[in-house]
Amino acid sequence: MEKLPYEKPYIKKLHAGVMNKFGTRSGVQPVKSIDGVLVKTLIENYGSPVFVLSEKQIRKNYRSAYRAFSTRYPKVQFAWSYKTNYLNAVCQVFHQEGSWAEVVSGFEYEKAVGNGVPGNKIIFNGPGKSNDELKTAIKNDSLIHIDHFEELNQLLILSQELTGKPRVAIRVNMDTGVYPLWDRFGFNYENGEAWTALSKVIDSGKLHLAGLHCHIGTYMLTTDAYGIAANKLCDLAMNCQTQLNHKIEYIDMGGGFPSTNTLKGAYLPGQDTVPSVDDFAEVITSTLLNFGFANEDLPMLILESGRVLIDDAGYLLGTIIANKRLSTGKRALIVDFGVNVLFTSFWYDHQVSPAQDFMPHNENMVIYGPLCMNIDVIREGINLPLLNPGDQVVVHKVGAYNMTQWMQFITLRPAVVLIDEQQRPHLIRSNETLGYIEEPEFIPIHLKANK
Amino acid sequence: MKIKSNIATSENGFIFNPATGDSFSGNAIAATLLLAMKSGKTEQEIKQDILDRYDVKADQLNRDWEDWMLQLKEANLLEIDA
């Protein structure tokens, strides 16, 4: 006789009171596969935990975001934000789709060159560029976005001996009605610093001011801020044209569009509250189109989106290690991935789904990672069915920042797998080994273990 | 390990404590365990019965039993030993 399915015994106190206005939870399904590949098979083949990326979803996100802008504005260019996810396979997907590269360090710059991106399609941002890095960028005709006066002077010195002019842009910060202001990067608009900087670039005769750049924040929940920012950059561009007789070729609006992850402390889920890329595109492009540029003078619009293009294409698969009951009676679940791997659990209440069939009873529980550190909390409270050690879970929307900000701390970093459009999994980064971590280490002779 | 004698339980997992007015709902296994405990079976008998009928290993069941006892204690449903 076949045995009945087992689940942990569980009782829940019933509270009389007003019904929850959102009704009961319904429709939760186990997530057994990703793009047609079984979670179980992925864990068997690549270990647990493992990051999984959907190439299909990345391309879909890119095309839909590009369409949102290109159907509203004649000259649009995306540049993939390397820091969001710079695994080479991921970058190549974006480059195949037509993205340039947006980098913020010499390391990222080298990665972009290694990925075959032509120098003149690399945007070099950030407040910390060395002389050597700037020389390379100048030699490759990259777009250098100047962050501060020191960098501007550095470039003027480097350009003394050149015959050609390095192509640069000024990063501008401004009040867009969103606080705290992001005023640590670039030159301020309101106090006239940005105008001084761009005048200095043009007057020098040594640098070519190709564009104006801003990046007003991250995970922006209001489209209005982008309208204000676009308006201020257009104002600078127009003044440049009328007062300094210099045409600005592009306006780079940066990134900052939110994914549909739910921010910690948010009352409603992210997918119900964040504006869509279309909403942002409408505000930005209508500001540019209505500002008063002649048709042939319309600047190219560059966007450096990262998070919104890849977050929902990434999954983290893991396994339950243990169940626990805390002193308060609350249930705790220990999983095999910690905050060292899932860095974004500090920002988001990530959705977590069981990867196998489950019984209908739910219990509110806390999810802890495997680290022997008090901060290792994946979810402070989540309603999940009762799971047993060995059961598998899928964490959703982890494609942005985790595979760059993850830390080798206490445990090793896991493998990353990309599922292609034909539903074939490919290993794109192998899991770390002790040898890999210790390879750069040296032990002085007097500290060597006696064998 | 004994359920308070005044606790009312139903076959589908509803539990009522007339002394406090608290009510609880439980899953199918919880309902089975409660009925077995009320019928006076020993821990060993109850566990063996579950092992015979359900797809679970003994070590898993033993771990869950500890948790089950904590839940019952937390819910104030256990007879307190003198």
UniProtKB/TrEMBL annotation, chain A:
Pfam families: Orn_Arg_deC_N
Cofactor(s) listed: pyridoxal 5'-phosphate
Domain Orn/DAP/Arg decarboxylase 2 N-terminal: from-to ranges: 63-309
InterPro entries in the cross-refs: Ala_racemase/Decarboxylase_C, De-COase2_N, PLP-binding_barrel
This protein's UniProt keywords: Pyridoxal phosphate
CDD domains assigned to the protein according to its UniProt record, in alphabetical order: PLPDE_III_MccE_like (cd06841)
The keyword RNA-binding is assigned to this record: no
The protein, known as: Rhizoferrin biosystnesis N-citrylornithine decarboxylase FslC
Species the sequence originates in: Mucilaginibacter dorajii
From TrEMBL, chain B:
Organism of this sequence: Mucilaginibacter dorajii
Protein's name according to its UniProt entry: PqqD family protein
InterPro entries: PQQD
Pfam families assigned: PqqD
Superkingdom classification of source: Bacteria
